[in-house]
Protein backbone atom coordinates (compact mmCIF):
# COMPACT_ATOMS: atom_id res chain seq x y z
CA UNK A 1 0.00 0.00 0.00
CA UNK A 2 1.38 3.39 -0.99
CA UNK A 3 1.40 6.27 1.45
CA UNK A 4 0.48 9.76 0.33
CA UNK A 5 1.77 12.81 2.10
CA UNK A 6 -0.68 15.40 3.35
CA UNK A 7 0.95 17.96 1.07
CA UNK A 8 0.42 15.75 -2.00
CA UNK A 9 -3.17 15.00 -0.97
CA UNK A 10 -3.94 18.72 -0.59
CA UNK A 11 -2.39 19.52 -3.97
CA UNK A 12 -4.45 16.79 -5.65
CA UNK A 13 -7.61 17.98 -3.89
CA UNK A 14 -7.02 21.55 -5.04
CA UNK A 15 -6.38 20.38 -8.60
CA UNK A 16 -9.58 18.29 -8.66
CA UNK A 17 -11.59 21.20 -7.20
CA UNK A 18 -10.29 23.46 -9.98
CA UNK A 19 -11.23 20.87 -12.63
CA UNK A 20 -14.72 20.53 -11.14
CA UNK A 21 -15.18 24.32 -11.01
CA UNK A 22 -14.20 24.70 -14.70
CA UNK A 23 -16.49 21.83 -15.69
CA UNK A 24 -19.34 23.32 -13.67
CA UNK A 25 -19.00 26.67 -15.48
CA UNK A 26 -18.87 24.94 -18.87
CA UNK A 27 -21.98 22.91 -18.02
CA UNK A 28 -23.90 25.93 -16.64
CA UNK A 29 -23.37 27.65 -20.00
CA UNK A 30 -24.07 24.56 -22.14
CA UNK A 31 -27.23 23.69 -20.21
CA UNK A 32 -28.47 27.28 -20.16
CA UNK A 33 -28.85 27.39 -16.39
CA UNK A 34 -30.00 30.60 -14.72
CA UNK A 35 -29.12 32.16 -11.38
CA UNK A 36 -31.89 30.25 -9.57
CA UNK A 37 -30.67 26.90 -10.90
CA UNK A 38 -28.01 24.72 -9.27
CA UNK A 39 -25.54 22.16 -10.50
CA UNK A 40 -23.60 19.48 -8.61
CA UNK A 41 -20.75 17.43 -10.05
CA UNK A 42 -19.40 14.28 -8.41
CA UNK A 43 -17.07 11.51 -9.44
CA UNK A 44 -18.13 8.07 -8.27
CA UNK A 45 -16.90 4.52 -8.59
CA UNK A 46 -19.05 2.39 -10.88
CA UNK A 47 -19.31 -1.30 -10.10
CA UNK A 48 -21.60 -2.22 -13.00
CA UNK A 49 -20.13 -4.58 -15.61
CA UNK A 50 -19.03 -2.69 -18.71
CA UNK A 51 -18.88 0.57 -16.78
CA UNK A 52 -15.63 2.50 -16.39
CA UNK A 53 -13.99 2.38 -12.97
CA UNK A 54 -14.90 6.02 -12.33
CA UNK A 55 -17.66 8.12 -13.84
CA UNK A 56 -18.87 11.67 -13.45
CA UNK A 57 -22.42 12.32 -12.28
CA UNK A 58 -24.02 15.71 -12.90
CA UNK A 59 -27.11 16.73 -10.93
CA UNK A 60 -29.08 19.47 -12.67
CA UNK A 61 -31.44 21.28 -10.31
CA UNK A 62 -33.60 23.76 -12.17
CA UNK A 63 -35.85 26.01 -10.12
CA UNK A 64 -39.35 24.52 -10.02
CA UNK A 65 -38.38 21.31 -11.83
CA UNK A 66 -37.36 17.86 -10.59
CA UNK A 67 -33.64 17.20 -10.19
CA UNK A 68 -32.11 15.35 -13.13
CA UNK A 69 -29.08 13.09 -12.86
CA UNK A 70 -26.91 12.93 -15.97
CA UNK A 71 -23.94 10.62 -16.41
CA UNK A 72 -20.62 11.05 -18.17
CA UNK A 73 -18.92 7.69 -18.42
CA UNK A 74 -15.47 9.10 -17.80
CA UNK A 75 -13.50 10.26 -14.77
CA UNK A 76 -13.80 13.93 -13.88
CA UNK A 77 -10.36 14.84 -15.21
CA UNK A 78 -11.03 13.12 -18.56
CA UNK A 79 -14.24 15.01 -19.41
CA UNK A 80 -13.77 17.08 -22.57
CA UNK A 81 -15.84 19.63 -24.53
CA UNK A 82 -17.41 16.86 -26.63
CA UNK A 83 -18.72 15.24 -23.42
CA UNK A 84 -20.19 18.59 -22.31
CA UNK A 85 -21.90 19.05 -25.69
CA UNK A 86 -23.27 15.48 -25.62
CA UNK A 87 -24.63 16.02 -22.10
CA UNK A 88 -26.34 19.26 -23.17
CA UNK A 89 -27.89 17.45 -26.16
CA UNK A 90 -29.08 14.64 -23.89
CA UNK A 91 -30.59 17.17 -21.49
CA UNK A 92 -32.41 19.00 -24.31
CA UNK A 93 -33.71 15.79 -25.88
CA UNK A 94 -35.11 14.75 -22.50
CA UNK A 95 -37.31 17.83 -22.51
CA UNK A 96 -35.35 20.20 -20.31
CA UNK A 97 -36.65 23.76 -20.52
CA UNK A 98 -34.44 26.01 -22.67
CA UNK A 99 -32.48 28.81 -21.07
CA UNK A 100 -33.09 27.68 -17.52
CA UNK A 101 -36.80 28.56 -17.64
CA UNK A 102 -38.98 26.08 -15.80
CA UNK A 103 -42.27 24.98 -17.33
CA UNK A 104 -43.79 23.83 -14.05
Oligomer: single chain
Assigned CATH class: Alpha Beta
Would you identify the regions where 5 or more consecutive residues have pLDDT less than 50? 99-104
Would you tell me which CATH topology applies? Double Stranded RNA Binding Domain
Q: State the CATH architecture.
A: 2-Layer Sandwich
Mean pLDDT across every amino acid position: 85
Rounded to the nearest angstrom, the radius of gyration is: 15 Å
- Tally of separate domains: 1
Global geometry: globular
Strand content: 15-25%
How many DSSP-defined strands? Answer: 3
Structural class: alpha+beta
Strand line-up across the major sheet: 1-2-3
Number of helices: 2
SSE sequence, one letter per element = HEEEH
Outline the biggest β-sheet.
3 strands, antiparallel
The separation of the N and C termini measures: 52 Å
Task: Work out the helicity level.
Answer: 25-40%
Structure description:
The protein has 104 residues and is an alpha+beta fold. It has helices at 6-31, 81-93, and strands at 38-45, 54-61, 68-72. It has one domain: Double Stranded RNA Binding Domain, CATH 3.30.160. Strands 1-2-3 form a 3-stranded antiparallel β-sheet, covered by helices on one side. A hairpin with an 8-residue loop joins strand 1 (38-45) and strand 2 (54-61). This is Nitrate reductase.
